[in-house]
Amino acid sequence: MTSSKIQSRMEELESLTIDNRERIGRRTGVPFIVFTYDPKDELSVDDTVEAYVKKLRNRGQSVERIDMRDLVFTLLEEERILDAVIEKEQANEGELREGLSSVLLGGRTDEQGLIAETIKDRIDDVDTAVVYRTGVLYPFAGISSILMQLENEIETPFVVFYPAVKEDKSLKFLDKTEGTYYRARVI
């Protein structure tokens, strides 16, 4: 992720979260920022996230960095279902998708799922939260489900690095799923 277009967008993100924090939710009403990148760049994003978090910390911010892949696997282990998920993935992907959605997202209801609850607890006392490696959510969820569960629940600026293609006012997660409208500010 080194192109000048990405660099320009990173500068916009840094300006917003370091120097202009009061503007974060001004247009959207939520403290969410989604930084999109080409899904093919998934592996190189870690360096970008690390550099961004370092800049925030160097400017005196406390930052909670959330690796979504680690979070999902930790929650599955805590629920004692990781082995069953791995077996089910090979046997019946459709059933697995429904089961994971139910366990981790609360079945897409208005109540918070395990992911949103855990995130809320982890970011309560920090200046900025940064979430990355969100590709693990495919195919059972998109970040929109988690953001909806966090709406009106958090005030912490919440930055999500998201492998998606932007099309008008929607994002195609991993360039595969149908676009979803986001209230978040998309950079």
TrEMBL record:
**Domain of life, per lineage:** Archaea
InterPro entries per record: BrxB (IPR014858)
Under the heading Pfam families, the entry gives: BrxB
Report what the protein is called. Answer: DUF1788 domain-containing protein
Q: Which organism is it from?
A: Natronorubrum daqingense
